[in-house]
Write a structure and sequence with these properties.
Strand order of the largest sheet: 3-2-1-4-5
Helix content: 25-40%
Structural class: alpha+beta
CATH superfamily of the largest domain: ATP-grasp fold, B domain
Number of helices: 13
CATH topology of the largest domain: D-amino Acid Aminotransferase, Chain A, domain 1
CATH architecture of the largest domain: 2-Layer Sandwich
CATH class of the largest domain: Alpha Beta
Shape: globular
Number of strands: 24
Bound molecules: adenosine monophosphate, glycine
Largest sheet: 5 strands, parallel
Distance between the termini: 53 Å
Length: 431
């Protein structure tokens, strides 16, 4: 099969690698790709948001299946464009991609579908928003409605902080058009879980659930980032919880989108907050795989990935996939200055021999004129280890992350700390 993966980050390297592992006979293409995808696919220097040139590429290489990694081209209508040209594409059209691109839309869909989520109100003018904050119980969350590359949500302990966040978005336009409409919502207590439903619009196949680590610092401290590491599976994602997520969140949301004439073909990523009493509430929806969650969930699929994505893209019945026993942990290596800035051009050295089960996915890397590998973005690499147990995967990912070198390297040594604590508690109970 000729497959084009759109995007150039760690998620897209993981997609290319998983498709290559699924069937060695695939002819793989990436746009724009990165030095990691170049090892397995033909990279084309077309940006992920250049809809016309991407459509030309699909034509020129007679692509059988296009898999869209990032949200921006989906929100811009890339999937609609390709489908109107008779092409098969994994990813929702612009109308359904609003589930991520407009939090106001997502909240409206959830309200109509009866999906559990934090109580919220939408504002686009300053004074009504400030009046609402003045009466809202603390803490609360102020969110830009539009796409803000992970910077759109501010968790505010006090009304004063919330008022500042509201002013920054609505008056100072700190997030541009993305923050021109905001959502103010109640704070949800609990533990976050990322759930991935591959769907043809009617039925879903769940891939392993994962947990991201959004803060730059160990112990979940410091600034928010795109994600500093992830692991899968997560022990709190029990079959009973996933059944609730399917029944109360995923299926009602897909039905409501379909009712609105926005059928969904792709992966619906539900960011859930699991309350200590076990209730799942939706924090956000995304219209694509998570990054870095893709770097742990895709390596756990041992067979059937291409057939699943292709069937979802065609709106056909979903075939089963095989998921490996064991666990995957990924540790992100970020460049100096991240997340406020990033540093380009620092030479990277990766050990020639990696331990069994370890894959280094490229994200912000580039090939210098002399052919050597250098940093070129905030998140540089994601080091994934797949192993029989969570503990082995965690230490293997961390140890390899230690051995990769570049100036200013930042990474967290505690990816999966909640799962580790759960394991330790289980041990204590046994003793
Ligand atoms: P979002 O951009 O909606 O994914 O939010 C980014 C992060 O902010 C989430 O991953 C949570 O850690 C946090 N967050 C967002 N909404 C809430 C909420 N209602 N209650 C608690 N934390 C939240
Ligand atoms: N890792 C969070 C995201 O992809 O949105």
């Amino acid at each position: 099969m000729r497959i084009l993966v759109i995007g150039g980050g760690g998620r897209e390297h993981a997609l290319v690698a998983a498709l290559a592992a699924d069937d060695a006979s695939h002819e793989l293409h990436a746009a724009p790709g990165n030095p990691g995808t170049a090892l397995l696919a033909t990279n084309h220097a077309v940006p992920a948001d250049d809809i016309d040139r991407l459509a030309d590429l699909v034509d020129a290489f007679a692509i059988d299946l296009t898999v869209v990694g990032p949200e921006v081209p989906l929100a811009m209508g890339l999937a609609d464009r390709l489908r109107s040209e008779g092409r098969t594409v994994f990813g929702p059209g612009a109308a359904a991609a609003q589930i991520e691109a407009s939090k106001a839309f997502a909240k409206d869909v959830m309200a109509r579908a009866g999906v559990p989520t934090a109580a919220s109100e939408v504002f686009d003018t300053l004074q009504p928003a400030l009046d609402h904050v003045a009466e809202h119980p603390e803490p609360m969350v102020v969110k830009a409605s539009g796409l803000a590359a992970g910077k759109g949500a501010v968790v505010c302990a006090t009304r004063a902080e919330a008022a500042d966040a509201v002013r920054a978005m609505l008056s100072d336009q700190s997030l541009g058009a993305a923050g021109g409409t905001i959502v103010i919502e109640a704070f949800l207590e609990g533990e976050e879980l990322s759930v991935f439903a591959v769907t043809n619009g009617r039925e879903i196949t769940l891939l392993p659930s994962a947990q991201d680590h959004k803060r730059i610092g160990e112990g979940d401290r410091g600034a928010n980032t795109g994600g500093m590491g992830a692991y899968a599976p997560v022990a709190i994602a029990t079959p009973a919880l996933l059944e609730r997520a399917r029944r109360e969140v995923l299926i009602p949301t897909l039905r409501e989108l379909d009712r609105r004439g926005a059928p969904y073909r792709g992966v619906l990523y539900a960011g859930l907050m699991i309350h200590p009493d076990g209730t799942p509430n939706v924090v956000e929806f995304n219209c694509r795989f998570g990054d870095p969650e893709a770097q742990v969930i895709l390596p756990l699929v041992s067979a059937g990935l291409t057939a699943l994505l292709d069937a979802a893209a065609r709106g056909q019945a979903l075939p089963p996939v095989t998921v490996r026993e064991g666990a995957a942990v990924t540790t992100v290596l970020a460049s100096a200055g991240y997340p406020a800035s990033s540093h380009k051009g620092d030479p990277i050295t990766i050990p020639d021999r990696l331990p069994d089960g370890v894959t280094v996915y490229h994200a912000g890397t580039a090939t210098a004129d002399d052919g050597s590998l250098v940093t070129s973005g905030g998140r540089v690499l994601a080091v994934t280890a797949v192993a029989a147990s969570f503990g082995e995967a965690q230490s293997s990912s961390r140890d390899t992350a230690e051995r990769i070198a570049f100036d200013g390297k930042q990474f967290r040594r505690d990816i999966g700390w909640r799962e580790k604590e759960r394991g330790e508690k289980r041990e204590e109970r046994r003793e």
